[in-house]
Model the fold of this input.
Amino acid sequence: MERLAQELSLAAWTFGLNAMGDSPVDSAGNEKTGTEATALAEPGSQQSKGKSSKAKSGARKVSDDARTSDRSNRGGPDSRSSFFDVYKAGQGKHIRTGTAVGAGVLVLAGANFVFEQLAIMVDPDRAWTSWFQMGTALLWLVGLGVLTWWLTGVNRKSCDFMIATEGEMKKVNWSTRREVMGSTKVVIAFTLLMSLLLFLVDLLFMTFFSSIGVLREVPSVLSMFTGGDV
Done:
């Protein structure tokens, strides 16, 4: 029984080496003999240890490469070299550009507002008034401009949010021109029908309240449209 167990163990180990390319059987199908076959079959042999070490080294390298790639895709420290490098530059272009343009318009309007308000608040007769106005407006432009750039091009959370927003917008099934025209016609027809129905109900109520003496005089239908007495 012990010999059978040893043979089974040796056969299993030989099968594993065969799967790794180190079979104790040569290309002609003849079994290797002597120290060569023993070195291949023994689990604790130098060749087995070397193979295991190479496998671990390869797995470690693949893991490091995957970690580096994932960090680069997420915009980690290795993906940008300076403040002016755009985070995930190829993604979410439309949303990020539109956000930057809208923020730029607001920043310019705010700078103009600050400039005009300072002209009222500060004594215009002083020599430094114009410099103070321009400097404050310029500081406003630079500060909020940098903030806009940081939100739309550098900050990971805000950029990922805008990228995800554009991705969701691409999933929207927009209506065709034919569908929009058909829906518009339905809305217009329904609005006209409801207007006509409410007009008839109004006439009915006026006639009813006039008959019971609540309304003394009922205007005619023509006078409702012309505004005169007919």
Residues 32-37, 39-45 have pLDDT under 50 and may be disordered.
